[in-house]
Structures
1.
Amino acid sequence: MQTLELRHVGKSFGQLQVLKDINITIEKGEFAAIVGPSGCGKSTALRMFAGLESPSEGDVLADGMAIKGPSPERMFIFQEHALYPWSTVEQNVGLGLELAGVSKSERKERINAVLAKVNLAGFNNYYPAQLSGGMKQRAAIARALIMDPDVLLLDEPYGALDAMTRLTMQNELQTIWSGSGKTMLLITHDIDEALYLADKIFVMSARPGQVVETIRLDQARPRNRNDESFSANRQKIMSLLGL
Ligand SMILES: Nc1ncnc2c1ncn2[C@@H]1O[C@H](COP(=O)(O)OP(=O)(O)OP(=O)(O)O)[C@@H](O)[C@H]1O
Ligand SMILES: [Mg+2]
């Protein structure tokens, strides 16, 4: 569930206008991506969908209703994994369920299921410092997924990872999404990552951020990064970004 929408959204922080008349619609179950220059307001837009920031103008909607605050239906994954360093993988991943009053035995079951889903089975008792960068990010995704949200909001989740790990993680994310019915919104600096994963890419201009183009991708998955339409779209986005 959950169609996401920004309707004529503007945002200013004091004198600084960050977003200007943004219109975005993400249908339920769709995989959308945002690319744009640093500082153009991508994280700000994502934080609005998460209910962590309110617009100065316009409407931020989920299924046509104003988003007024955070909700477990829309989980947010930060660039920095933000795991608690003093808690194990299992404790980090299970925290949301614990706060929701879910029993220990059910928690255990759901933790194991979600860890298997993100390829972290058996790492229950590891601390974040004992994990690789990719594994930390998998744990952060597990912590969001365990709440079974309708929407996953991902703010450059793989930005800090090496190129090879990124490719693996992109495939894992695709597997998590496909057939799940979940709505995904991914912010990335990596144009190929957006082209590989998304149904729709919003290309933003420099601040004040505006959507300069929406690119729709309907190639079957998994996609081939070397095929013609992939390259053509890569070229198109690069020229829109002035690269
Ligand atoms: N809480 C805040 N108070 C004041 N200014 C803010 C706040 N949050 C963001 N900004 C400003 O808004 C602008 C856009 O920030 P934002 O983090 O949304 O950009 P971004 O597109 O995500 O950039 P990056 O690609 O570097 O992550 C920046 O100039 C930033 O300084
Ligand atoms: Mg950002």
2.
Amino acid sequence: MNVMQAIENRRSIRVYENAPVSREQLTSFLEAIRLAPSWKNGQCWQVLVLSDRAQIMRLGELLHGNPRREGVFENVPYFIAVAADPALSGEEEGKSYYMADVGIALENACLAATDMGLGTCWIGLFDEQPIKEFLGIPENLRLVALTPLGVPAQSPHPRPRKALADFVHDGVWGKPLV
Ligand SMILES: Cc1cc2nc3c(=O)[nH]c(=O)nc-3n(C[C@H](O)[C@H](O)[C@H](O)COP(=O)(O)O)c2cc1C
């Protein structure tokens, strides 16, 4: 699978098989984060790998039914939490680049997972404080995202996307390129 195929094939997977992910696959997923570009190469991310069943189920309780599919927590062998130290990234004109750093790094990893036949689902909506406390994440870090990592038990249809003409401009705002 080439990069464009991985981009096209990736879906948010919210139901998982009760099936293992190998250590090599987990390492490849983490390597895709490690190799990501970041603001001034600050590499502000910290990654927690959860593999303990009870811990994953407790995380599911703290997520209050998000995603709204119990299978996400019941079966999946890994849950990944990505935190960031904003001080290691940049802030310019009110833009905090740790969100971009983590976004790029985690999407790298989600595409690598797709290439390995594995599923992920970016989870960005949660009560940060209780989950940080549960995972022992230091106060000065922000918890940006969570994702399951496992063998998909569903093949969702692609969700709708805007057409290029809806957001691409040719040189000046409003002049269509396509
Ligand atoms: C920053 C971000 C946060 C997201 N947060 C959640 C979430 O909290 N819960 C959830 O079920 N999906 C979440 N998603 C997944 C989106 O709903 C999903 O990417 C979108 O509907 C498109 O579907 P697809 O990923 O299958 O292409 C999030 C995605 C992104 C990029």
